[in-house]
Specification:
about 675 residues; Beta-lactamase; 23 helices; alpha+beta; Penicillin binding protein transpeptidase fold
Length: about 675
């Protein structure tokens, strides 16, 4: 029994020692976590304590920078801060009543509202919203994003408490009223009062004050310029809350409810230059960080100042040349390798026409869509000199017995792919879609960023709808070797302390083989050198370039999308309500001159070079008329073939000469030489 007892005692001792060690390790680990957490909290509090203390000196503004790091514009170029004393008491009371009626009682966080919001969130299984006081809203506006997470709510509460410790209620309310977002790019009650009613905020009536206060909860939904009825209904809710809070009497509420509100038209921007680009970037920022307006943040953009100016000048000059009232144009320029947006123009005049056609207007691209059909065909084994036969006998398609035709009459009965794209032949494009099938074309287009296109027989002719931004980005896969790129406008955002609030790298994925991509580049170079885009050369595009025209039925839309090896640019021209632009308003006549003007200007800051040929391609010299092996008298060009492509083995019959013709030419050359020598002798 002795040895057994000893073994048992040793086992108990080891268990006891091991248990103590385990508990100690757990305690030490927990202590380390608490210390680390405490240090992180202290560091966070110190950081925001300093930021909050600066509020007593006023707040700065979010500044946007160009791609080279130079300041470009502020978030609110029309900001008008005013002291609280110069804001109507009606407006102050309306905002407090509808947004935070216990504002003057709580320490930055309203316990009653917090409990109610928490219960509601728990019932909604994960929602995080509600319960924010004016101070919390100010904290979010100045320092945080609008993300609905528990972490953001905790930070918001902590900053709100710090704000309450350092500022008076009047200072907090003043900051809030000068910073709150109220729709249509307007921040603060002073500029909103002036834009809506043409008067300073100190002079607004009770009804007008209720309308402004009602916008805070949902600025886009209740915008008076797009939904005045909803804004007025919301103002009546505000008036009811004011009466409940005894900020106004029942008689005042009834009188204000019956008041006729005269809202001024949507304000013209005082700074229209680059207006489309600036508002696009502001909206991208809001999409990422909500409607907040943080101070002293740095928003770094991908836009290049020289290219933006070139785009604006090209659009302005082009529309002046066309001389049609209300005719609009959009231009988008991107870096094909990264998807970086370099320039953007969304219309003829941002002040008069603020709607951004470059990013929001969805129109048919016409023949500008054809390169995607040809790319799908090349990817499935065809080559640029594969022949399409029977073009004049295509069977009618679809339930409406639709058949394609060309704008200027019928074409040859057979064409190579290169010749068909060069001439923008509609019958060839439709036949190619029939041979390849709609699905491969739709799949490639979708992977390139053109989604939601219809599966119809006329797909090849561009009867789907796209935005200029989408189509321009999709073209990037041709010069960049087959990669689809995502649009990138805000690669980096820094907060007031220099911390990284956002960092987005370029994103791209292979959707087309490099060999097919280059074959399309080569074919689209032909379009500019001797096809429908040849006018570009006469307009000064003297560097390697490629592109495609597009024109829709009845000349309602004109397009040109083209590229160098460093820049892709797309131009659309048309009316907002689709109507014919003019007689014979082809893309080559209407959109191409704007594109050529921009590319010529852009080459000064972004010089282009030759397109790189992938190593997997084989080059062959062919006749540029018959696309066969050249005879002695053939004009020639270099064709590129993928592995597996059928290479022509016939010699061009059109330019061949007989032995008799060759001898006759030799004798004629000899006689001319003898004659020249004799004339030289007699002159001496």
């Amino acid at each position: 029994m002795g040895p057994r007892r000893n073994q048992e005692m040793m086992r108990q001792l080891r268990t006891r020692l091991f248990g103590i060690t385990l508990r100690q390790c757990a305690a030490l680990g927990l202590l380390a976590l608490l210390v680390a957490w405490g240090l992180a909290v202290v560091a966070w509090l110190a950081r925001y304590e300093l930021a909050v203390s600066r509020l007593r000196l006023g707040v700065g503004d979010t500044v946007f920078y160009t791609a080279d790091g130079q300041p470009w514009f502020r978030m609110d170029e029309q900001r008008q801060d005013v002291p609280l004393a110069e804001i109507s008491p009606y407006l102050q009371r309306a905002v407090v009543a509808i947004e935070d009626h216990r504002f003057f009682l709580h320490p930055g966080i309203d316990p009653i509202a917090l409990v109610r919001a928490t219960a509601r969130n728990l019932r909604r299984a994960g929602a995080v919203e509600g319960g924010s006081t004016i101070t919390q809203q100010l904290a979010r506006t100045l320092f945080l994003s609008n993300s609905r997470t528990w972490g953001r709510k905790l930070k918001e509460a902590g900053i709100a408490w710090m704000i309450e410790q350092q500022l008076t209620k009047q200072q907090i309310l003043e900051l809030y009223l000068n910073r709150v977002y109220l729709s249509a790019g307007v921040y603060g009650v002073e500029p909103m009062a002036r834009r809506l009613f043409g008067k300073p905020s100190r002079d607004v009536t009770l009804a007008e004050a209720a309308l402004i206060a009602g916008l805070i909860r949902a600025p886009s939904v209740f915008s008076p310029w797009s939904n005045l009825d909803a804004a007025v209904r919301r103002s009546h809710v505000v008036l009811g809350r004011m009466r409940e809070e005894r900020a106004i009497s029942g008689a005042e509420e009834r009188q204000a409810t019956r008041a006729q509100l005269l809202v001024r038209p949507y304000p013209r921007s005082a700074i229209a230059r680059s207006g489309y680009a600036k508002e696009f970037l502001r909206q991208r920022f809001r999409d990422r960080f909500g409607g907040s307006h943080p101070p002293d943040w740095q928003v770094h953009t991908t836009f290049e100042r020289a290219l933006q100016l070139a785009a604006e000048q090209a659009v302005e000059t082009g529309l002046q040349r066309l001389n049609r009232r209300d005719l609009q144009a959009a231009l988008v320029a991107v870096d094909p390798d990264t998807g970086n947006l370099l320039a953007l123009v969304g219309g003829r005049d941002f002040a008069s026409y603020p709607y951004n056609r470059a990013t929001r207007s969805r129109r048919q691209p016409g023949s500008a869509f054809k390169p995607f059909v040809y790319a799908a065909a090349l990817e499935r084994g065809l080559s640029p000199v594969s022949i399409l036969r029977g073009l004049n006998s295509i069977a009618p398609q679809g339930p409406d017995e639709w058949a394609p035709h060309n704008a200027r009459g019928e074409s040859a009965d057979e064409l190579t792919l290169r010749a068909a794209l060069l001439a923008s032949d509609n019958r060839a494009a439709v036949m190619l879609q029939q041979q390849v099938g709609s699905q491969p074309v739709l799949t490639l287009a979708s992977r390139a960023g053109l989604e939601g296109l219809p599966d119809v027989p006329s797909l090849a002719l561009g009867t789907g709808v796209v935005t200029p931004l989408e189509l321009t980005l999709a073209y990037s896969m041709f010069p960049n070797g087959g990669f689809a790129v995502k649009p990138l406008a805000l690669p980096r955002v820094l907060d007031a302390e220099g911390g990284v609030a956002l960092e987005e790298p370029a994103e791209r994925r292979q959707v087309l083989s490099p060999e097919t991509a280059f074959q399309i580049v080569s074919m689209l170079q032909d379009v500019i050198d001797r096809g429908t885009g040849a006018r570009a050369r006469a307009l000064g595009v003297d560097f390697p370039a490629a592109g495609k025209t597009g024109t829709t039925d009845d000349f309602k839309d004109a397009w040109f999308v083209g590229f160098s090896n460093r820049l892709v640019a797309g131009v659309w021209v048309g009316f907002d309500q689709p109507t014919p632009i003019a007689r014979e308003a082809f893309g080559a006549r209407v959109a191409l001159p704007i594109w050529a003007d921009f590319m010529r200007r852009a080459a000064r800051s972004r010089p282009s070079g030759r397109f790189a040929v992938p190593a997997g391609l084989r080059d062959e010299v062919l006749c540029s008329v018959t696309y066969l092996r050249p005879a002695e008298g053939c004009p020639t060009y270099v064709e590129y073939f993928k592995p597996g492509d059928a290479i022509p083995n016939r010699t061009c019959p059109l330019h061949q000469i007989t032995l008799q013709e060759r001898a006759s030419r030799a004798i004629a050359d000899m006689l001319r030489d003898i004659s020249a020598r004799l004339r030289g002798i007699f002159r001496k």
